[in-house]
Amino acid sequence: MTDREIKKAKQLLGKEVSASLHERVRKDVASLAAKNIVPKLAMVRVGENPGDIAYEKGASKRCDLLGVAYEKIVLDEKVSQEELLSVIQKLNADADVHGVLLFRPLPAHLNQAVIENALVPEKDVDCMTDLSMSGVMTGKPIGFPPCTAQACMEILDHYQIDCTGKRAVVIGRSLVVGKPAALMLIQKNATVTVCHTRTKDVPAIAREADILITAAGRAGMIGAEYFSKGQIVIDVGINMDENGKLCGDVKFAEAEQIVDSITPVPGGVGTVTTGILIEHVVEAAKNAAFGK
């Protein structure tokens, strides 16, 4: 069989998911505007981390696009614990602020756990607090799930991928993606296995998956030996390859020759994540105005 005859995987494009997401958000923003309510996001950044700055710019553009207000609070990387806690408390008390995004990890001299849990869960739009994570665990409407994990679910929903009875494998066990994604897949009635650095023979386990979510955080770690025909692959990785180009955890060229569907990097999960963040802010504004 020639290269031209090889059937390549369908790409699950984030821009298509985002377009649908934006339509929902605009309707909610318009309904709030009729009540003279403008959803507002506060972004709190400590220091000048390039990744944080890039995400901040992307979130700001998405806010402008969707009619959501925002403010940027930039603090010196040597900020004291007391000063940062004071900022969080002021945002808690500000009725005009509906969602708060604190860029993490914080500098080592700060007690991140204490600072995270100082935020009230109703304004915790990226699952920073323990209470919000308990909402993910129990399925109760406490706070909001992590934006990246929910972006994975949004992609599955948009492309009408039914998880019921499917075998799902998640590679990675972080609180940002791996663990919450596994819990959210269980809520979708999938049977879930979580793989991590101590798991034996991860490729063999991954090959058994109907749905494979990779959140390993290592460029090109997931190669052909992890895949089997018919799989749906969600690549959460945002990495730089040896040439300085953005890439995922998956060796895309190898995967697309085997699997049924796959998210590209860039242009996949990351494209949807910021939209989820803004949707959470709008939902928080609705909750504040009308209750859950």
Give a written overview of the molecule.
There is one protein chain. The longest helix is centred in the last third of the chain and has 22 residues, at 269-290. This protein has 2 domains: 34-135, Rossmann fold; 148-270, NAD(P)-binding Rossmann-like Domain (Rossmann fold, 3-Layer(aba) Sandwich), CATH 3.40.50.720. The protein is globular and about 55 Å long. It has 292 residues and is α/β, with parallel strands linked by helices. A 6-stranded parallel β-sheet has the order 1-11-8-7-5-6. Strands 3-2-4 form a 3-stranded parallel β-sheet. Strands 9-10 form a two-stranded antiparallel ribbon. The model has no long low-confidence stretch (mean pLDDT 95). Strand 5, helix 7 and strand 6 form a beta-alpha-beta unit. Helix 2 (50-66) crosses helix 10 (269-290) and helix 6 (147-158) runs parallel beside helix 7 (178-187). It contains 10 helices and 11 strands. The protein is 40% helix and 15% strand.
Helix/strand layout:
Blueprint: E1 10-11, H1 14-33, E2 40-46, H2 50-66, E3 69-75, H3 81-93, E4 99-102, H4 112-116, H5 130-138, H6 147-158, E5 167-171, H7 178-187, E6 191-195, H8 202-207, E7 211-214, E8 232-235, E9 239-240, E10 246-247, H9 252-255, E11 261-262, H10 269-290
Helix pairs in contact: 1-10, 2-10, 6-7, 6-10
Content of β-strand: 15-25%
Secondary structure tally, helices: 10
CATH homology superfamily name of the largest domain: NAD(P)-binding Rossmann-like Domain
The total strand number stands at: 11
CATH class of the largest domain: Alpha Beta
Mean pLDDT: 95
CATH level-two architecture of the largest domain: 3-Layer(aba) Sandwich
Strand order of the largest sheet: 1-11-8-7-5-6
| Overall body shape | globular
CATH topology of the largest domain: Rossmann fold
Structural class: alpha/beta
- Total domains: 2
Which ranges are low-confidence, i.e. pLDDT below 50, for 5 or more consecutive residues? none
Radius of gyration: 20 Å
Order of helices and strands: EHEHEHEHHHEHEHEEEEHEH
Described by strand count, sense and barrel closure, the largest sheet is:
6 strands, parallel
Helix content: 40-55%
**Termini distance?**
56 Å
